[in-house]
Design a protein that fits this description.
This protein is an alpha+beta fold and 97 residues long. It contains 2 helices and 5 strands; from the N terminus they run H-E-E-E-H-E-E.
Amino acid sequence: MSQIVFIVVIIAALITLAVYSYIRQLKSAWTGTLIDKQVVFTKSSESESGIKKNILIFKTDEGKLVRFNVDDSTYNNFIVGTKCEKKSGEYLPIKTV
């Protein structure tokens, strides 16, 4: 019985962390520049094909680095050097010019 409770607590903690992270991302607001684009493949022992992550890395005007995992379409729509603005309430930044 104690193992079930432990598993439920761990799952609840992971869900809480994911929701907190999403809400924090949603509330943030900044302006900055796209400084890098990366495609990362992770391979698990269960899957031969692995998982593909498209990552956009922005440097805010305050000097902080912000990373976004995005889909292929969003990844292809951004060019390194693009000025962007992330508004509170929006998940992804938009191009300013």
